Amino acid sequence: MTVPNIIEINGVSRHFGPVRALDGVDMQIREGEFFSLLGPSGCGKTTLLRLIAGFDDPTAGEVLIAGEAMTGVPANLRPTNMVFQNYAIFPHLNVGRNVAYGLRKLRLAPDELKSRVSSALEMVDLTGLEDRGAEELSGGQRQRVALARALIMRPKVLLLDEPLSALDKKLREQMQIELRRLQRSVGITFILVTHDQHEALTMSDRIAVMFEGKVDQIASPNELYERPASRAVAGFIGGMNFIDAAVKKKTANQITAEAAGLGTVVVASEDNVSDDASEIVLGIRPERLSISTGKKAGKNRVVGTISDAAFFGEVTHYYVDLPGRQEPLAVSVSNSAEHETLPAGAKVTIGFDPKSLVPLD
Question: Rounded to an integer, what distance in angstroms lies between the CA atom of residue 255 and that of residue 261?
Fold first, then answer.
């Protein structure tokens, strides 16, 4: 069954004088999905979120929500609500009144108002804290209050502007899981703005990766990680080794190339590689490489020397010098009970599967 689009972004641009914060963005966001806008600072993701919310107007193009053009529709009349980076909790109101704030204009009966506040607090695991003062809340509780205040209005789309950035690492990871659980529970569309790749990969159904006001790729977390469409996306999503390669032969299905440090490889052809390309870049994730002691050169194996190693708890990153390659090759190894850290200067064999090599240019 085809899921309908709840939001359509058609040719949207936003200029601030000579600066193009957004440049011809096209995007469709499906009903009920967790969608993330990911990219470095200044790429235009927050600007796009503000255009969806109605806090700003596009220079060109249009935004549609539930099939209706939002041109001229103010923020308070759009079927969206927003959770801000700083939560915007009112310090003079207790939890219950903070959550109920948006309902005041609806003039609900006291019983219904109380019921909706209780339901909203239950959704975010704050039952029983209605009378607690805003100043008595932890960072995680403030974030939950902001979520409850947004969800109580029953929007079709919830917009999240880096809502976890102020939390410490452990709480942030906990809230990532909680947010994903909450989104599945309420079933509405969540749109998250973040510059944190791990956050986007953990929480999202699909991710739009943005650079300099444009969208480079929209895909599932798995597809973005396994088959990035460009070098920019590959470098931003996780660690990646980039390997220069000279094309020897190209068919509709595969490319034979001489890869610096790896020798002759045969990889699957991609649409982003032109038919007449003589030079390409291949990408391979550090964890897709194996490392073993000794010299065992052969098919899909090369011999190198460890130049450095970095211990990161669960994994160790090795940096291996290979003949014919200027930059060390990064290799990531899980620190299992059997793994013994290898010293700098050790001769090692690097193994790889050509299926893990991704043509990027």
Answer: 17
